[in-house]
Amino acid sequence: MIPVAIGLLGVHYYFAAKIMDKKVVYTGLAAYIFVLFLFKGMEWGFPKDTAAEQIEALVDEDYVMKHFIFHVVLIGVLTPTCIPFIKKELEGKTVKMN
Predict the structure, then answer these.
(1) Which of 47, 49, 44, 48 is nearest to 69 (CA)?
(2) What is the pLDDT of residues 39-94, one digit of tens each?
(3) Which of 14, 9, 20 has its CA nearest to residue 75?
């Protein structure tokens, strides 16, 4: 799952960089990476390394709440780079890539 998530993250920021101010995109990418390291280092709901550990962790209410918060924070970090795509979609326009 981690390689898929990293790949999708790269695609997201690649397309965001094509239509947005580069400072916003690179700040968002840095914040995303910071959040990953913070949650992993503090063991705040970051996915476990093995399937057996993950299954065990999913029974722990504290882990589940921290993992939920982890996702909320990641969504908060991604939102500023998603707004141009959403705005264009709502206007019925296609996003023009440079």
Answers:
(1) 44
(2) 989 988 888 888 999 999 999 999 999 999 999 999 998 888 887 767 776 776 66
(3) 9
Q: What is the DSSP string of the chain?
A: -HHHHHHHHHHHHHHHHHHS-HHHHHHHHHHHHHHHHHHHHHTSSPPPSSHHHHHHHTT-HHHHHHHHHHHHHHHHHHHHHHHHHHHHHHTT-PPPP-
Distance CA 56, CA 79 (A): 31
Sign of the Cα torsion 49, 10, 93, 83 reads positive
Token digits of residue 71: 């996702």
User: What is the C-alpha separation between 28 and 81, in angstroms, rounded?
Assistant: 7
